[in-house]
C-alpha cells in the first residue's frame, strides 16, 4: 500500500496541523499548499510555524 | 459555557475580586500558617509588581520554585497577576531536569523562597504577607494594574514526559484556566465554604484543581506540607483537623486514608489512573460524592467525569464529557466509531491547550483539525484507547503508544530509555512497565551484563523525576529477541520472577522476620529474598509504598513508626531499629499478669466441651535426632522451657461453667522413652506411636496441656515427639520453643521471658476494648450479607454434630507453576500464598456456584515485640471474604485477595465469636461458625532442633484431626509449592479430595501462566463431579429447625424468618407452663440476667452465646444431677424444647427427686472451693 499523502493545513488563528489528502479539510482549515508524506509535512511545519502564539494574541500586542 | 461573558476577565482578577468582597476569609491554611484573602492578594500584588519591574509581560515565562507552604499559592497568583506564565520547577527534583526546563522555556526570572533561592542566581523572593509592599500599604502605581494578560495569553506551562527523550511543555491559556476553574467549581459544588485538599505537586495539573478551583469559588486551600504528604497517618490527621470538605485524592492514597474519619469531606475527586472499584463503597458511604475524573494536561485538568456510589466490582468508567468539552471515539482515520467499539479518544472544548512550547511539529501532530465542531477548531488526540459503553459512559482501555502512568504521573517509556542510553556504558536499554502492587512500575533491561545497576539508577535519578526512575535495573548479556527482530517483552518480564541476591544477612529474630514479611509484601518480592542490608528504594520501593509499609507496621505490629523512618533508615536493618525504638501502640505492656484466658482460648475450651472426644486442636511435631543424645540434659531442658513459658504449665478448669486458667509451679516434665531399637518393624511402630501421640486427648481441667515422648530407634537415633494442645501453642511457637529447648540443653538457666502469655491476654483485652467497637463495626459492614456457610458438596451426609475427624492429602504443583506463581506474586507485589488463595477461590466458585464466599485464615496476633518469641496461642481465625467477578482476570483476583488480606489483618480488635454474634449467624453444632474452610498461608521454614553433636530432621507427625471441613496448607518443599489438605473424612472421600486438588493445581498452573486472561476462561478438570454430591445434614429439618437462625440463611436452606421448632411446637401460651419449663426458664433468666423469658424464645436470640450455654449446662447439672451433653443444649434452644427433652430423657418429671438436690448442693460446695483458689 503506498504511503498516504498528507496536507499541511492552517486555521484563522494561524495554527498549523496536518490532514489526510483526499478529503477536504474541515471548515475553517485551509491547505497551505504543502503536500507530502506525514514526516515531510511535520518537518515543514517545524520550519514555517515559528511563532506559535495564536494570531489573536500576537495582533493584540 | 458562555465564553463571551468572560472576555477580559482573568482568573487572578477574579480572585482579587473575591479578596475585595471577603478580605478576612481564609484563602490558604497549613496548620498555624494561614493567609486570609487580603494577605494573599496583598502579597500577590507585591510579587506581581516586582515581576513587572523585572520586565515580566504577557507570554513571559517565570519559574516558580517554592516549598509547599502557603507562600506557594502567593507565588502562583503573583505570576498570573503579573501577566506572565508560571512554570513549576520542582525544588526536590533533579537539578538537571530543572536546568533543562529553564533552558527550554527560556526562563530568566524565578520566584523562590528563602530555602530555594540558593538554587538560582538572582531569584525573586516570594513576599510574606504584610511584609514589604503588602496589602497594608495599599496598592499604588503599577501595582494597581490589573492582570494585563488577554484570554489567549499563556497562564502556565507544565512539563510532561516526552517520548523523544525530552520533557515537553504544555502551554495553557488564561481562557482555558478561567473557564475550567469556574466550570469545574460549579460541577463539584465548590463555594465559599469549600475547604479544598491541597495535595498535588505544583508540576502536576491536578494542582490547578487543588488551588485555583477553590480560590475562584471563594473557598480556601488546605495545603498539605511535605511531611504530612509523606505519611498516611499524618495526612489523615491533616485532612481531619483542617476540616477538608472537597478535593482530589490520588488513586494510590484512597485505600490509605480512612473516609469514616473525615465526615466533613463531602466531595472526593480521584483519577489520573484507575481507582480500585472497592474504593467506591468506602468513599461514597454516607452520601459523599465520589467522582472519577479524566483529563490530560493538554486539556487543562478534567474533561470527563463519572460519579459512582455503592458497591463496584468492575473497572470504573471515566464517564462523559463535562460542560464545555466534547469527547469523540474515533478509528485510525479519525472517523467516529459506535458504542462498544474501541477507539482513540479525541477531545475538544475550552480546555484545549495552545500546544507544546517550541514544538510545532509535535503540536500539529497531536492537535488536529476538528471535523465535528466549530469551523477552524482543533481536537486533541489523547492517545488513550477507550470504548463508549452502551449507556454512553466512556471506559478507559489502555494506550495506543508507550505512555504509562506511574503513580498517577504520565511517563513516556521512550524518555526513560533515552536517559538510560545516555549512560556511557549502556549498549542497549529497554524499559518495560510491569504491573506491581501500586499499579505499574518501570523495570529497565540493559546490556551488557556487567552494568552496575545502582549506578544506572543514580544516573536516572540525576536526570528524571522520581516517577520516571526505574524501580529496578536488570543487566543482561543480551536482550531476548522475537523472530521479527523486536525485543521480546514477554521474555523480559519472565526474568523478573528470578531471585535477586539479597544484601546482608537474612532476618533472624521474630521482629526482623515480621518486618521483613511486610517489607516483602509491600515491595512485591518474595520474603525469603529480603536481606537486612537491602535498601528500600533500590529494591523498588517509593514514596507511596513507603506509606503502605508504615501503615502495615502500625496496624500489624502496633508500632507507631513514621514514613521518615523508612526514608531515614533506608535498609531493613535501619527500619527494624526504628521499629524497636518506636513505643508500641497505645496500650502499655502489662507485667506479671496472673493467668488469664483470651477469647480464643475460651473458644477452644468450648469446642472441647462440645466435642469431648476430638483431638482436632492438637499440634504435633516430631524431630529425628541422630547422634549422641544426652537424655538427662533433654529432660532438664524441657523443664527449663516450661519454667520460662508459664503457659506451658497452664490448665483450664471451670467454675460453674465459666472457664479460668491456673498455672502449676515449675517442675519436672515427664519424658517417657520407648525403646524400639531391637524391633525389626520399628518404623511401623514409630508411626503408630506418633499417631497415638498426635491423637492424645488432653484434659483441659487437669493438664498438662502438652507432652513429650522419646522413641529410641538405635543408640544414637531418637525421635522426639512433642504434642501440644492448641490452647497453649501455635505454629509460630515452634521456633521459640525449639530455640529455647536448644539453649536450655546447653545451659538450663534460660532467664525470664520478656513477657508472659497472660500479659498478652491482658494487653489484648485492653487493645480490644479500645478498638474493638470500631473494628467490629468494620467487620459487620464487611461481612454484611455474606453466606453463613460454605457448603462443599460432600460424599456423606453431614453428621448433625461436627465430628472433627481428620485425614490428609497432598498435591504438588505442575512443573513450572511454582516459578509462575512466584513471578506473578513478585510482579503484583504480593505473596505466593495470595496467588494460591486466588486460585483456590476460583475453584470454590466453580464447585459451589457462589461468587461471594468466606474462607478463614489464621492470623498471628503478635503485634507487640515482647510477644515475638513467646510460646502460646496467639492465632486468630480471620474470615476472608472473596467476592469474585466473573469477568475478572486472574491478576485482578490476586490483587483483590491481596487487598482483602491487608484489610482484614488491619482489624484485629474483633474476634470471630464477636463477629458471629454481631452478624446474628445461626448456631449449628454441625459445623464451625462462619468459617468452614480454612486457607492457611503460614509459610515459614520449619525450624529445627539444634543440639550439639546431633543432627535433627523433621519427621511427619501423626495427624490429630480436622477442626474445619477442609483446611488447605500452602507448603514449600524443595523450592516448589505444594498443597497439603486436611479434611474431614466423615464428609469427603479421599477420591473427591484428590479430584479437588487436581482441579486446584491445574487451574493454578494455567492461571498463573496467563494471569491477564479472564480466570473464568480456564478449564478446571473435574468440576462437574465436584459440584455434585450431598449437601446438608442428616435429618436436615431437625437440625435446621433448632439452629435458631435469625441471620443470613445458610446454604442448607434454613429459613431465617421461619425456623421450624421440631421438639416443641410454638402453639399455645409462650409462658413456661410446666414445672420443668419454669425451672429451665429460671436458669436462663439467671444466666442471661433477664427478668423473664418465654417458653418459645430462642436462647441465641435473647442474648445467649456459645459460652453462656455452657453455664446453662452447668446450672442444669446442679439442678438435676445429670450433665447433659452440650450438643443437646444446642439442639434444643427453647425453654420448651429443652424441658421436653429433659423430661422425655428420664421418662420422669425433672424435679422432686431429693437425691438430685443433694447432689446439686455437693457440687455447689465443690465449686466454692475451686473459686477460692482462683
UniProtKB/TrEMBL annotation, chain A:
Record's signal peptide: none
Gene Ontology biological-process entries: siderophore biosynthetic process
Ranges for domain MbtH-like: 1-47
Pfam families (UniProt xref): MbtH
Gene Ontology cellular component terms for the protein in this record: cytosol
InterPro entries: MbtH-like_dom (IPR005153), MbtH-like_sf (IPR038020), MLP_fam (IPR037407)
Full protein name: MbtH family protein
Origin species: Bailinhaonella thermotolerans
UniProtKB/TrEMBL annotation, chain B:
Bias (Basic and acidic residues) ranges: 1154-1166
Region (Disordered): 1146-1174
Keywords, sorted A to Z: Phosphopantetheine, Phosphoprotein
A GO term for molecular function: phosphopantetheine binding
One GO location term (cellular component): enterobactin synthetase complex
Cofactors: pantetheine 4'-phosphate
Keyword match ATP-binding: no
Residue ranges constituting the Carrier domain according to the UniProt record: 506-583, 1071-1146
GO terms under biological process: amino acid activation for nonribosomal peptide biosynthetic process; enterobactin biosynthetic process; lipid biosynthetic process
PANTHER family: FATTY ACID SYNTHASE, NONRIBOSOMAL PEPTIDE SYNTHETASE
Protein name per UniProt: Amino acid adenylation domain-containing protein
Biological classification of the source: Bacteria, Bacillati, Actinomycetota, Actinomycetes, Streptosporangiales
